[in-house]
Design goal:
Helix content is 0%, strand content 57%. It is an all-beta fold. The protein is globular.
């Protein structure tokens, strides 16, 4: 089992910045991917960004150049630095983990990000 605890959401004006954190605990595999998805009201959950344990990153086109994902493997923590936020970034952001040996999907409880215009 893996537990994910998120922090850092909130309310910010358009053009502002926020930093999300997600700490993983439990059975953390040496090979894994962590990341962030988001879900806006009435929409499906969508990928924001992921990062593997080797440091490879993947971003949604809508956030490229504005968001940066990083991780601290010693702390089993993933970060999402969000800059130049737009009202359309408003959503609940969910932390995600998938790793060896089971490769099961784990989700955090979600943190609200609201960007006002």
């Amino acid at each position: 089992q893996v537990q994910l605890v998120e922090s850092g959401g909130g309310l910010v004006q358009a053009g502002g910045s926020l930093r999300l954190s997600c700490a993983a605990s439990g059975s953390i595999g040496s090979i894994n991917v962590m990341g962030w998805y988001r879900q806006a009201p009435g929409k499906q959950r969508e990928l924001v960004a992921t990062i593997t344990s080797a440091g490879s990153t993947n971003y949604a086109d809508s956030v490229k150049g504005r968001f940066t994902i990083s991780r601290d493997n010693a702390k089993n923590t993933v970060y999402l630095q969000m800059n130049s936020l737009k009202p359309e970034d408003t959503a609940v952001y969910f932390c995600y983990y998938r790793g060896s040996p089971s490769y099961s999907n784990y989700w955090g409880q979600g943190t609200q990000v609201t960007v006002s215009s």
